[in-house]
Batch of 2 targets.
Target 1
Amino acid sequence: MAQPLESEKPKARTVKRPRPYWVEPLVTMVILGAWILYSLWEVLFHNTGTYHNYVSPYFSPQVGNWFGWHVLDALYVAWVPFLFRFSCYYYRKEYYRGFFWDPPACYAVDAPRPRYSGETKWPLAINNLHRYFWYLALIVLIFLWKDAIQAFWFGKAGFEVRVGNLLMLVNAVLLTAYTFSCHAFRHMVGGRKDCFSCQDGKPSTSYKLWHKVSEWNVFHGTWAWASLFSVWATDLYIRLLIMHVIHDVRLF
Ligand code: FES
């Protein structure tokens, strides 16, 4: 007997939902919206993001310095992490629900349109390039690690631990967790194979790696939010230092 299409199946009841379905999309919309506005302010209204040996994550790597361009330095690089996040599978779910309300929640809640063209058309078709943005984001991540390590050395004062360099380090760690728990990366290390043990009967290195990435992948949404907040906090801290609103706090 032919199976009914998804759209023809009866809607499931949602009486066990712990809170109204619109709460999560609304919270997402507020937080992501605030972050996007902040990021635009940071990228479009500031020429530099460095304070002594600190570099804001929006401005790294400092491409402007390599070529002697010193106007809106962040524009040369900030598009990479932005497109990486914009095309992330987890964020797609979040902003489709939060901003477009389409679909607003799981299948049990009616979508505003019966047909869904999703990522088959532009501009959302750009999300299919996520796996390529992953490689670019990896390059940026390497620079963020370099910045974080260098931020612990203060010339003649030597090695010091301060709030600023700790933030940069935590940011690099969280971004690493976010990048390597990516669905596309999981597919790259093993998902494309039909059989992991067909060659010699033993789990291959690829299988072990895929298994490890799968464990991280379960928490991808958590890493996505944690790294977004760490980027935000690190940049804001460095921006406030540049503006002389706060002083860097030395811990030891
Ligand atoms: Fe989220 Fe790749 S799926 S970063």
Target 2
Amino acid sequence: CYQNSMLRIFHRKHLLLNLNKNLTTQLSQQPLAENQKVVSFDDNVKQRRDEANRSILVQVQSAHSFHELQSYCSSVGTVKKMMHYSTGVEPMHFIIVEFAKASDLQNIYTMSSYIEDTQVVPVQSSYLWFRAATKKLSKNKNKSIHKLNVENGNHILRDNELLQVLNSCADVNEQMVNLHNSTRLNEVGTRLRFLVAKQIEMAISGMFPNSAALPFGSSVNGFGKMGCDLDLVLRLNDESKVITDETRLVYHCKALSGSERSISQRHMEVIGDILQLFLPGCSQVRKILQARVPIIKYYQQLTDVECDLSMSNTSGYHMSDFLYIMGAMDHRVRPLIFTIRRWAATVGLTNSSPGRWITNFSLTLLVIGFLQNLPKPVLPSLNALVKLAGKNDKYITDDGINCTFLRDINVYLATNPIENTDSLKILLLQFFVYYSQFDFSSKAICLNESMAIAKPEHSALYIVNPLERGLNVSKNVSPEELEKFRLEVRNAAWLLESDETKDSNWGIIPLLTAKRILSMNNGNLPRTKLLEVSKLFEDDKDGPVYKNNDVKKQVQ
Ligand code: GTP
Ligand code: MG
């Protein structure tokens, strides 16, 4: 117990030290240097899957087991990297061990064993635990190879820690960059998610050696925060393994019978049972098979990751590619979207459970639509990327959805440099103003064309699905929730614009603590504040009136 609390204190100390250190070093999200290339989404996913194929997750007694484990693993293969993290109130400690070669992992599996217990399912996976040594081991001489790096943990910043970070920034731009850097999914979080995906592939690899459990959504699209859920799509046969002219021997396979949907539901039932009955760490398995896209929800408790597994959502992966591209186009996009997503969660516009409110996904599309629509756009339309698509960019999903668009954004940026140089603060304010004045009653947001188009039907909020143009991704949003959105963007613009003092509540801080301010007034701003907000948006013949003339210039 004493050792555990000392460890916790040690971890906290390091965390705060790192946070402070990060204040000066975290401006990593910076414009691309000349000749610096953006890694494509596909290459990024490939590299992460490869990393997971060479990694194991080992539960250890404490962070101090690091060197002993390193020494043990090094006797089996070449250890490339090790990262520690802990999870739970009474923390369980884990170390991710990455080997240099996938064959090193085979040696690990050969050497590992099961506990002698008839009450467990003896399943082989890359999730192991490190038993205390029975013999006294000679001290490891190699201690300097890997330093224990607590920075690599999976700590989710508490509100007060984040406020501390934001308070010590020099200006709003730095606040937004630091918000992004200190809350985004980190290296450990990303690796854990790919290990979760690999657990499923490995479990069914006997029957389906070419299966792929592909992460999509915020875990990989560049907009994921620490603790975000993992969206997975499981394919039983990766596309590249289909018959070619040279193939002479072909596998005998069972014929499918029934509708595509019923087959998929049946398969998912079985996968759900495998997760529940056989796979270590997989708990709280819920099969939601009647939904438009049937999914299995479960909690992977060894990695502390909530998962949504589907087998038919093939366009989700390409949608994530599109969002990844949008985030990678310009260094301001991710900090802006992180700030807006956090603000929306604070004021209760978004909610982790599904319902009549705006989802994070819809909100992200709203921000992208706004950035495409500026007089000097920050982002291009999807159509511009479609026009530049090469032959390697052609993708049509099994259900016929055309997901063809340019994947290598270096090609686009080489000939279309982004001319907009507005600061993050200006962009944030412009976003709030843009949507406070948007004509939601007759217009739809359309990312394909970079413009608002006439609304095809009467949903309260209409955002054209960029990959399936006949669909509205925000069909679920009720008129009341849209009204709340309109009110909140006005309040936010008012809060941001009226920020003149630099006490402890300045810059974006009031936006991220607004819940507390609003809750004191039963969810409403004081009447006087509302009047001032509406004054801020009073139209005159030259356009909207702003208190701050600099902002007015920029917005126009
Ligand atoms: P968080 O999980 O909230 O962090 O964000 P997310 O982007 O992962 O959202 P979510 O888990 O709800 O959805 C995962 C992915 O599924 C999204 O990134 C989209 O690619 C896709 N998706 C979500 N909602 C819709 C929708 O209404 N229509 C379509 N076509 N795709 C969606
Ligand atoms: Mg998600």
